[in-house]
Amino acid sequence: MVPVDFRGMATFDDDAVLAASPAAAAILTALVTSGPQSRVSLARRLGLSSAAVTKSARPLINAGYLSELDATERTGPGAGRPASPLRVQADREYFVGIKLTGDELIGVVCDLTAQIQAVSHRPLDSSDVDDVLAEITAMVGELLDGPRDFRARTRRLGLAVSGDVDRASGLVRYSPFLRWRNVTLGKLAAAATGLAVTVENDVKALTTAEHWFGEGAGADSFALVTVGSGIGCGLVINGRPLSGSHGVAGELGHLTVDAAGPACHCGGRGCVEAIAGTSYIVAAAGTRTIDEAVTRARAGDPTVAAVFARAGEAIGLGIAAVANLVGPARIVVSGEGLAAYDLFEPHIRAGFERQAFGAAADCPLVIRPLPFEEWARGAAAVSIQSRLVPLA
Amino acid sequence: MVPVDFRGMATFDDDAVLAASPAAAAILTALVTSGPQSRVSLARRLGLSSAAVTKSARPLINAGYLSELDATERTGPGAGRPASPLRVQADREYFVGIKLTGDELIGVVCDLTAQIQAVSHRPLDSSDVDDVLAEITAMVGELLDGPRDFRARTRRLGLAVSGDVDRASGLVRYSPFLRWRNVTLGKLAAAATGLAVTVENDVKALTTAEHWFGEGAGADSFALVTVGSGIGCGLVINGRPLSGSHGVAGELGHLTVDAAGPACHCGGRGCVEAIAGTSYIVAAAGTRTIDEAVTRARAGDPTVAAVFARAGEAIGLGIAAVANLVGPARIVVSGEGLAAYDLFEPHIRAGFERQAFGAAADCPLVIRPLPFEEWARGAAAVSIQSRLVPLA
DNA sequence: AATCAATACTTGACGAAGTTAATTAATACT
DNA sequence: AGTATTAATTAACTTCGTCAAGTATTGATT
């Protein structure tokens, strides 16, 4: 094997290598999402000939994006010539991901396989666009020029924002928590940081990350449900994230589960969010904060526990609706609301099982709180994805 | 232009022509779904060069699948050379479509553009597999060897069955109305009729037909909701029909819309079907038949009218759920239940508008009863599609 | 009438990206 | 050592597209 060409500090003129062929992108994607594999198994998985894999992989190896496993790492015995599995050279390139909330920035540096290498938090006092841009720039500097020097190998930044985002143009059409309308965040952040910027809705970003690197890896279709002040849902169908023709998709929060239920701020009645959204739980529990409600429920207050039970069940019914309508291969439930995981879980499962129809009940349900850094990792994942699959 | 090679009675060795290239299938599909177009406009639509269209179209013209519009039919003036739009030669090939119900077969012959050329109905006394096959064979004979002779140009048969169907293998896993389990209908019907058979779930078949030839034509994503004894929903997303990982998708009937609603035979509570399914309407109205309920409601009986109102609203809520979760470009509502169209429509719209979230409310809703022949046309459409797009 | 600009289509050379078939490589088993 | 077996590579070929240049047919302009 020719030794790798890449010298670490080299220029980034290797873009052409990644865009070389459709097969190159497919190979990288498969290796990133499913770990090291031999060329033959890649060929089978991608529906290519092994010759095509050999050809497409070589330039990626030469450019330092792929490497072969060391002899020692290879798998056990078996007849015939042993495979030389390919692996992504994770440290070949780094990506910054930042999640913007109303009062904080959470940032990470990830390698090519979306493993977190560094973390940073910064409070956000103002939601003025210039102030936020300054904080983003400062955070990028802090992350890239910190104890480990990532700067030379980092060219991309992913931003995750809640609300209505146009990923293609980097435009934030509307963001409730930041009170933004039509902010060209992509362009502005690119100018401020010198990085290529991808902007995406936060739930979609997290869904992408879970689909590529997390619980949804390998699944052709996949749903991620987030529970918090709002109830959100990201969907991947036939391997592609779902956006909705009119820009709306995955709006699980405003599904009706109880026609006679409480009024929702959306104008409807008995929406999942009007039963299980944080502020509605607080109101129904009669406490001042959600933490107080959690404490009381854990202490055994039957009224407050019933509020959580009802909320969990509403979420379960909503998830069953997703399973019945879309039929994803698996569903992950997460979000900051799941800090009260123990109060929700059995009721979510009960609601789901009650209403999932036929084989939809077989859909595995993963209920797991994700730390806030995961959201930032989602932003980085979108950025990685946009690098590996320029189209889409 | 060289005169067309096809002689009508020629052998069917032109399969190779259709499968010639990806572009050929794309051109045919575009012409079938969107009507005659010039090569240049096809090129734009399909993202090809006009040279590619010219090249791929030629063999299709020579084999008689496409023709150029007559000079007289061409569009109006304009600078430059006028276009010679291509059109599908609809009578080049015919397809039989049969919809199987519990007590009747409905059959049609369609041309390549899914226009119905002949219709046939046959009662079904027995659901014994051999008896049904005999009826299918008789119906095919009646349709193909009738006043017009379609036999020479027909090689394919599509069958639509309600229940759990594996299209790829032609297996009917379970069909409630026919009381079938694991019937290899595709193979059996092929042997009996000598035609190439495609078997598909009836709702999916109708969805395909509407997506290609009906209200959903041109839409990238699309939903069809059927109202009858059950409530069904077929979905097309990113141009592909949705099947669901565990074989379940579009199960709109068992969505909860009222957690305190009536019990459903599925075991849940307040499902759409338990409020709007035919038998539940009859029970709630306290009549013996659905026709009696319709008559009474139309006569002004307020109790029965309220039952229809509630049913319509439940359907509307279900449709809103589809719009919120999946975001189709358009939604069609149909099915035999819509014979009572006038009783439902305003309530369906009201339920939809109440619960559709944000831009999802912009999704156009087409509420229209479809005659039973449309279901048979759906079966034919699946057969046409399998001919034009061998893969998928 | 002759020319020109505009648009549609056709042609042939070329190139990208895959394929198949034959070859080489590395292992286990006998 | 020899053979079977699987992995990877190589080289020749195929497919399917693009590009650039040319032809065809019209309306408008000189």
Cα end-to-end separation of chain A: 33 Å
Radius of gyration of chain A: 23 Å
Q: Could you report the average pLDDT of chain A, rounded to the nearest whole number? A: 90
What series of H and E elements makes up the topology of chain A?
HHHHEEEEEHEEEEHEHEEEHHHHEHEH
Strand content of chain A: 15-25%
Which percent range fits the helix content of chain A? 25-40%
Q: Can you count the beta strands of chain A?
A: 15
Structural class of chain A: alpha/beta
- Major protein interface: A-B, 55 and 54 residues
Low-confidence stretches of chain A: 1-13
Alpha plus pi helix count of chain A? 13
Oligomer: homodimer
Q: Any idea what the shape of chain A is?
A: globular
Summed up:
The structure is a homodimer of 392-residue chains. By secondary structure, chain A is an alpha/beta fold.
Describe the structure.
The structure is a homodimer of 392-residue chains. Chain A is built from 13 helices and 15 strands. Chain A has 392 residues and is α/β, with parallel strands linked by helices. The first copy, chain A, has a five-stranded mixed β-sheet with strand order 5-4-3-6-10. Chain A has a five-stranded mixed β-sheet with strand order 13-12-11-14-15, sandwiched between helices. A three-stranded antiparallel β-sheet of chain A has the order 7-8-9, with helices on one face. In chain A, helix 5 packs across helix 6 (185-193) and helix 10 packs across helix 11 (302-325). The longest helix of chain A is centred in the last third of the chain and has 24 residues, at 302-325. The model of chain A is unreliable at 1-13 (pLDDT under 50). The interface between A and B is large, with 55 and 54 residues. The structure holds a DNA duplex (30 and 30 nucleotides).
